[in-house]
Structure formats: C-alpha cells, structure tokens
Amino acid sequence: MTNPTARLVGVGVVIALLVALFAPTGQWLALSWLGNSYYSHGALVVLVSGWLVWRRRGALATARPENIGLALIAFGIGAHLLAVPLQMAVVSAVALVVTLVGVVWAFAGRNVVRAWAFPLAFLLLAVPLPGIERISPSLESFTAAYAAQGARLLGVGAASLGGQVSVGSRGFTIGTRRVARLRSLIDSADAIPDPL
Q: What pTM was estimated for this model as a whole?
C-alpha cells in the first residue's frame, strides 16, 4: 500500500471504531434533535459543518500527520468512557467533538485543524445543553423585547409581551416550543408600512 492509501485506510478504520464506540451518543443526539424542539437544528449544524469542511478540503494538500492528535483522541475517548456509565450524555457528545478534532490532527496535522477550526467548533452547537427548557422563557422575553425595540427604532409600531412581538394587528411568538410559522411572519410583513 502506498502512504496516502495506508493513511486513507487508517482513517477509515479509526472512524469505523469511533462510530461503534460513540453509537449510544449518536443515538442520544439524534433522539434529542428529533424529540426536543429546542435542538431540532442539530442535524443542520452537522450538515453545515460538513459542507464547510468540504469547501476547505484543499487544506488536505498540506496534510502532515502529528502525534499530538493521538492525545486528543485518548482524552476524548477517556471522557466518553467516564461519561457513559454516569449517564452524562452532554459530556459524551462534547468528547465526540474533541475526538473528531484529534482524528483530524492525528491524520492531517495542525494546518488542517486550523483551516477547519470553525466547522469543527461549530459542531458544539449541535450538542443539547442541559436545562435549556428552564432558561428559555426568559431568553424568549429578552429577545422579543429587543426585537420590538429594534422595530420601533426603524419606525415600525411594535410591542412585546413575554415572548410575543406584535406588529400592527399581527403577532408572532419567539421561541421553539411555541414556534410561530413562517406564514405568520410573512403575514405580519403586510403590517409594516411601505417606506415609498
């Protein structure tokens, strides 16, 4: 086997082993994305990260494997193995991202990690945070208040009450538990005065 072929086979084997090892975490992530409206964006985050990596695939031309990546892989796997029996799925999911960074570093080197830093870090936004349901109502109210204030600064008559913003006779709700449909947002656009 040539060196690039051996590296590709090595990456394939490592990824297959990591898929098997992190399967329960992957299942938890998928169920969280499908079952919790606060995290329904998780799959999209993964797709966008993959697309960003694909756009920067030219960085692989400078690939130089580095052993420091093995330390990140070991750290990520260790954190995962500690998190699973303690049922700390969030820690395991973050460990998955750390392990993925380690794999990239081990097989492609720091230049590729630098080139892919944003898409790799962006993956952390797919990890469901514990307790988000408790803080969301106050975040929704905060967002609605500032959205209404911003609209008023633009000359649009808007008011907010809790997580709801009213524009003219129309209203829409901020937040994912009570997601306002795109139609209500579009319908509320006709309440905005035409500047011309």
A: 0.71
Positive or negative: CA dihedral 141, 143, 146, 150: negative
Residue 4: both structure tokens together: 């690039």
Query: What percent of the chain stands above pLDDT 90?
Result: 48
Domain boundary assignment for the chain: 3-130, 133-189
Classify each residue of 30-52 as buried b or exposed e, where b means 16 or more C-beta atoms within 10 Å of its C-beta: eebbeeeebbeebeebbebbeee
Report how far apart the first and last C-alpha atoms of the chain are (Å, whole number). Answer: 69
Name the β-bridge partners of 173.
164
Residues 6+ apart with CB under 8 A from 117: none
Location of structure tokens 């303690």: 86
Give ∠ CA 77-79-81 in degrees, rounded to 5. Answer: 65
Which runs of E-coded beta strand occur in the chain?
Answer: 158-161, 164-167, 170-173
Q: What share of the chain is helix, strand, coil (3-state, %, to 5)?
A: 70, 5, 25
Assess contact for 132 and 116: CB atoms under 8 A: no
Render pLDDT for 34-93 as a digit per residue (tens, 0 to 9).
Answer: 988 778 889 999 999 999 999 999 998 888 889 999 999 999 999 999 999 999 999 999
The HSE-up count of residue 146 (CA atoms within 13 Å, CB side) is: 5
